[in-house]
Design a protein that fits this description.
Shape: globular
Strand order of the largest sheet: 1-6-11-8-9
Number of strands: 12
Structural class: mainly beta
Order of helices and strands: EEEEEEEEEEEE
Strand content: 35-45%
């Protein structure tokens, strides 16, 4: 909406200091786009977050668009000796292909200030990896792009995101993606800003 806005940030005590900082990510588009935040536990296919797909059409045919936003949430447990054991986070998302066609996933993270560059893969209904990008490309826009994966209508496909072993679960360890499913080969597409 047009107008002037004022944004004021402070810590919970209202003071601040040299060792305190914020990460603020603002953007505005002409569309009403929001990224649904993952909900844990989604560490395996049976727990996958189901992506909401919005339907669109253009001169090439029909397509759906889904958004995802996730965070590195490593698991910390104690072994029998009392030593901390950290397991890297693995996030799963599910999408049903509405028709035979193609899928494109575009992910951004480190290019826009995230402290992680996760691995991302598309998994088919049989549990096989169709296409993967290992750790994306740091400081590249997009961080990772998996393009024109053939899909079968009615089948469920999965997006698997593995956070790096070094992730600590802090607020600056995030990723976002856009996932397209189309009944035509996708020649151009948008990525998360």
């Amino acid at each position: 909406q047009d107008g002037d806005y004022l944004l004021e940030l402070s810590d919970e005590d209202g003071d601040g200091g040299d060792n305190e900082w914020f990460f603020l990510f603002l953007y505005q588009t002409g569309e009403d786009t929001s990224y649904p935040v993952e909900s844990e536990d989604n560490n395996q296919p049976i727990q996958a977050n189901v992506l909401e797909a919005t339907e669109y059409s253009n001169s090439s045919g029909d397509y759906t668009l889904s958004y995802g936003l996730g965070f590195a949430d490593p698991t910390v447990e104690l072994d029998k000796g009392g030593k901390e054991v950290v397991t890297a986070d693995e996030d799963w998302y599910a999408i049903e292909a509405f028709d035979d066609g193609y899928m494109v996933l575009c992910m951004n993270s480190s290019a826009f200030g995230s402290a992680i560059t996760p691995d991302v893969a598309i998994i088919d209904p049989d549990g096989e990896t169709v296409l993967a990008a290992a750790e994306g490309e740091e400081d590249e826009d997009p961080t990772a792009a998996l393009e024109n994966i053939e899909v079968s209508g009615g089948d469920t496909y999965y997006v698997k995101v593995n956070s790096p072993e070094s992730a600590e679960g802090t607020a600056q360890e995030w990723y976002e993606f856009m996932l397209y499913v189309a009944d035509f080969e996708i020649g151009s597409y948008g990525c998360p800003p």
